[in-house]
Every structure is written in structure tokens, then in C-alpha cells.
Design goal:
With about 450 residues, this protein is of the alpha/beta class. The chain has 14 helices and 17 strands. The structure holds zinc ion (ZN).
Length: about 450
């Protein structure tokens, strides 16, 4: 803002606001005044005077929400879209599909950008992404305008053997992945701009030795970071940890000092009553893969986990990054567990999980996750001038039950419009699609020839 003249950079004018701020969750007609990348004020009347230098976005007929926070993604895994959804198990554990060690840097860049762009166009303004090549993926995603946080997967299992059913640990691999995480922190952890950042990502209890998990804990404490890991994703993992460590995965995480309110646990499907209590007591955050898990015929006991004390956050895992659709899956699966409609599973609960709940998981709740004065100006404008989004009797209920990510018209990150009219402004969409198509075709060609070679051996 020009201090002398007090001219704000931007006004999002006259939209209906769903703020995710408990103090003022709904504003029927609001003017969001944005300056210097932050929300300067939210007014319920048109400002008396608007300076011609201020950019005004007419939001009449639009619903404004905070940007969504997707706490657990693997953008590069968009390479298995349309196939992994119908496989028996996660791609890393399956033969004949492209794996994390397969993409070359160019392919990683292309797939990461596709995943990042998809998430942004659907209204996510920050994602927490883990996979290989994250030194390439985070900047590639950030180029689209999204805040790209994440980490390369840290493990000491030999991932080139896991899909063959072999868990072999190698300290050199552990050292290498830790070194990559350390380099990523140096190059991409930016707690000032928040455009890119690091959340340490030990892959899973079974792909990390207890000793490596302790090293990750030390790095977390040294650097003041959070942890994102898969927890009790499969019965295979639970049985394996029981055999190897004589514990359950949450017990192991507690034993190595990782289970506390700095932990984001993805999945948490195969958990016992004691595990649920343990996770809740720790105040850990649940990355609920609502759609992905149910597509695979499974569901995390989200009702019990929330009651035990876990913070609910939402995530798409292997992309299809529509957080609106995800809210619906989370709502339905919660109600299925309870067998009825209760106050615990209402549109407000899943909207909170998709916004401020995710921000809490990342430790960024003072900066993003709600439309609150002083926070970063990360906003999404949904075009509600559409038959499936009328009437406006209950805007939040309508958004959650019939809205879609593709109803997003405009996305603003740090006060900059990065999507307008449903199209990205920072990158060439056609070029992103074309590069991803070429990369995926080549990755699948190599994966299939590997499978053929394996079946002949
Ligand atoms: Zn995952």
C-alpha cells in the first residue's frame, strides 16, 4: 500500500464469504480489502471511496472461501491416474506400474507441474507433497502459483525391491534420502514467503528402520519442522511392524519420538482401539484420504479418531485434487461410521478440515486457512451463477453437497490473481498437459517392459 495515500492493492467486492473463521463464519455480502499480500480488512458494506489505482474484482454472484489446504499429496503420482484407483495396493508396492525411482528429472518436472496445476485450478492454495525429485517438483508446482510444500520421501528400504515383496534396509539409502531432505531445506524452505517449504516425510514405518526414524526426529528438532508420514495404511504394514518391532505402527512412532502434535499421519486405516487413543492423546493430525481409501474399499475410523483428539485434515494422496469433492466423501464416510446424521458430521466440519484444519496440521494456522484480517490473502472465488449451485438458501451446504472444484473461477495467492476465469495465468496450460502426456506415456512404456521382463525371469 502507498502509505501516504493509503491505497490498497485489491478489493474483492461484494461476494458471499465463507471464512472458516469461527468468529465470523458467514458474511452474506462482503468486501475483502487486500494489501501487500495480506487481508487488510473485511467489510460488509462497499467502501465509500475506492481509489482508481486499486484493482477491483467484482465478486457479485460468487462465493469466496479461503484457499484449500491439501496436506498429503504425491503430484508426480498423477502418472498413475486412471489405473492406480483400481489396483489392489499402493503403486510403490505393485509391479508393472511406474515407481518413484522411475521418472527422470524432466518427467518429474512435467508430472509435478500437472499435479500442482490441477490442485490450483480446483482451489488449493497450498499442498504438502512428498515423492522423489522434490527439488524439482516443489519449484515446478510453485511456478503455477500454488504454495508448494513437501519433502522427498525419506526411507532406508531399497524401494527398487519393495514392489517385488522384499524389504531390504540399507543405511546408505537412508543417509542419501536424509541428505536430500537437508538440501531441500537449504534450497526451498522459506518460512517468510511460505511459497515453498519443507515438512519432513519419512515414507512409512515399514520402509524406514527405527534408527532412521530417530534420525528424522533429530532433524525435525534441529530444524523446527513438522513430520508427514503414512501410518497404518495397510494390513501388510501393520503385520510387518508387529513382526519386526513387536509393536503397532503408532506405537513405533511414539517409541522413536515422532508421535506428537507435529505429526501428520496419512491414512490411519488399520488402527486398534489403543492406537486410536494413542494418536488422539498425542494431538496428531489425520491426513484423511477420504476418496482414495474408499475407492480401495477401506475407510479410516475418522469418527473415533476425531473423538480421541486427532485434528481432521483432508488430502487427495495420489491427486485428483478436488477438495470440494473430498469434503463430500469425508462427510459421507463419517456418517456411514455413525450410521446416521449427527452434529459431528456437518458441512461446517469438513469445510473446516479442508481449510483451517489443514493449516493447523502444517503449523500455519496463523498465516493461512481462513479469511481473517492479517492473514495471507489466499482466496478462492466459486462461480455460483450455475443451476447446481442455486438457490443460495444455505451456501455452505450447497458448496459441500453439490459444488465441484471446477466451479472455481478465480484463485488468489498472497494477493496475486493466479487463476482467472478457471484458467491459469502463470503457466501455459496446453504446454503443461502436453509435457505430462509425453512423460506419462514414456513412464508406462518402461514400466510395462519391466513387468514383461520380470514375468519371463
Ligand atoms: Zn500417500
Amino acid at each position: 500500500m502507498n502509505e501516504a495515500l493509503a491505497i490498497p492493492d485489491m478489493i474483492v467486492a461484494g461476494g458471499t464469504l465463507l471464512t472458516s473463521d469461527p468468529n465470523r463464519p458467514y458474511i452474506q455480502e462482503g468486501w475483502v480489502i487486500i494489501d501487500n499480500g495480506r487481508i487488510e480488512s473485511i467489510q460488509d458494506k462497499k467502501p465509500a471511496r475506492i481509489h482508481p489505482a486499486t484493482k477491483v474484482i467484482d465478486a457479485k454472484g460468487f462465493v469466496i472461501t479461503p484457499g484449500f489446504v491439501n496436506v498429503h499429496t504425491h503430484a508426480i503420482l498423477s502418472m498413475v491416474r486412471g489405473v492406480a484407483e483400481d489396483m489392489g495396493f499402493a503403486p510403490a508396492y505393485t509391479i508393472g506400474v511406474p515407481h518413484g525411482h522411475d521418472p527422470n528429472p524432466e518427467e518429474a518436472y512435467a508430472m509435478a507441474q500437472l499435479g500442482g496445476l490441477e490442485a490450483l485450478l480446483f482451489g488449493s492454495t497450498i499442498i504438502n507433497d512428498t515423492f522423489t525429485h522434490q527439488n524439482i517438483a516443489l519449484p515446478a508446482m510453485a511456478e503455477t502459483g500454488i504454495r508448494a510444500w513437501g519433502c522427498g520421501r525419506i526411507h532406508d528400504v531399497d524401494f527398487t525391491r519393495v514392489h517385488l515383496g522384499e524389504w531390504t534396509y540399507n543405511t546408505k539409502i537412508g543417509e542419501q534420502t536424509l541428505r536430500e531432505a537437508s538440501d531441500l531445506i537449504e534450497e526451498n524452505h522459506d518460512p517468510i514467503s511460505l511459497l515453498t517449504g519443507v515438512v519432513l516425510a519419512p515414507h512409512a514405518p515399514d520402509t524406514c528402520s527405527p534408527d532412521l526414524l530417530r534420525q528424522v526426529r533429530n532433524m525435525r528438532d534441529d530444524k523446527g519442522l513438522r513430520i508427514n508420514t503414512h501410518v497404518s495404511q495397510s494390513q501388510v504394514e501393520v503385520d510387518f511392524i508387529r513382526e519386526r518391532d513387536k509393536m503397532s505402527p503408532p506405537e513405533l512412532l511414539e517409541d522413536v519420538g515422532l508421535l506428537d502434535d507435529r505429526l501428520i499421519g496419512a491414512h490411519c486405516i488399520h488402527v486398534s482401539k489403543t492406537d486410536i487413543e494413542r494418536l488422539g492423546r498425542a494431538g496428531a493430525h489425520l491426513a484423511h484420504i477420504a476418496k482414495g481409501n474408499q475407492t480401495h474399499g477401506q475407510v479410516a475410523p475418522t469418527s473415533a479418531l476425531r473423538r480421541a483428539g486427532m485434528n481432521l485434515a483432508l488430502s487427495t494422496d495420489n491427486m485428483h485434487a478436488d477438495m470440494v469433492e473430498l469434503m463430500r466423501w469425508a462427510l459421507a464416510s463419517g456418517r456411514l461410521q455413525d450410521g446416521k446424521i449427527t452434529n459431528d458430521w456437518q458441512p461446517a466440519n469438513v469445510f473446516e478440515a479442508a481449510t483451517i484444519g489443514g493449516a493447523r496440521a502444517l503449523g500455519l494456522e496463523d498465516e493461512v486457512g481462513s479469511l481473517t484480517v492479517g492473514k495471507r490473502a489466499d482466496l478462492v472465488m466459486f462461480d455460483f451463477r450455475r443451476p447446481h449451485l442455486r438457490p443460495l438458501t444455505n451456501v455452505l451446504g450447497t458448496l459441500v453437497h453439490t459444488g465441484q472444484g471446477r466451479d472455481v473461477d478465480t484463485v488468489i495467492v498472497e494477493g496475486e490473481v493466479v487463476v482467472s476465469g478457471g484458467e491459469p495465468l502463470r503457466v501455459d496450460k496446453s504446454a503443461v498437459l502436453e509435457a505430462a502426456e509425453t512423460a506419462a506415456a514414456e513412464l508406462w512404456r518402461r514400466a510395462r517392459s519391466e513387468e514383461l521382463a520380470f514375468s519371463k525371469s
